Task: inverse folding
């Protein structure tokens, strides 16, 4: 049996992808609400930060929120302690 990746477990698969890439505040709030209840939110956010995803809501953060984190620690290669320190993952 093939291993299931975290992406296959993502709650966003139940929604239209446009919801996560619509720059309007209302859509961003709805997308973040979906992320908030997702079991793989941490993995998603880590992937977005590591790959420097430029657009969309990933792991519950907008592109603006992710850019702010990246500016705080631009040279980090390990996002886990950073996200733990700011309370975004446990």
Result:
């Amino acid at each position: 049996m093939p291993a299931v990746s975290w992406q296959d477990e993502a709650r966003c698969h139940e929604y239209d992808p446009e919801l996560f890439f619509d720059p309007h505040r209302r859509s961003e709030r709805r997308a973040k609400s979906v992320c908030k209840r997702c079991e793989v939110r941490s993995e998603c956010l880590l992937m977005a930060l590591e790959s420097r995803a430029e657009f969309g809501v990933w792991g519950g953060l907008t592109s603006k929120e992710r850019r702010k984190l990246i500016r705080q620690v631009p040279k980090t290669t390990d996002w886990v302690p950073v996200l733990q320190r700011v309370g975004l993952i446990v």
Residues 45 and 51 are 10 Å apart (CA to CA). DSSP finds four helices and no strands in the chain. The helical segments are 25-36, 41-50, 63-72, 79-85. The two ends are 30 Å apart (CA to CA).
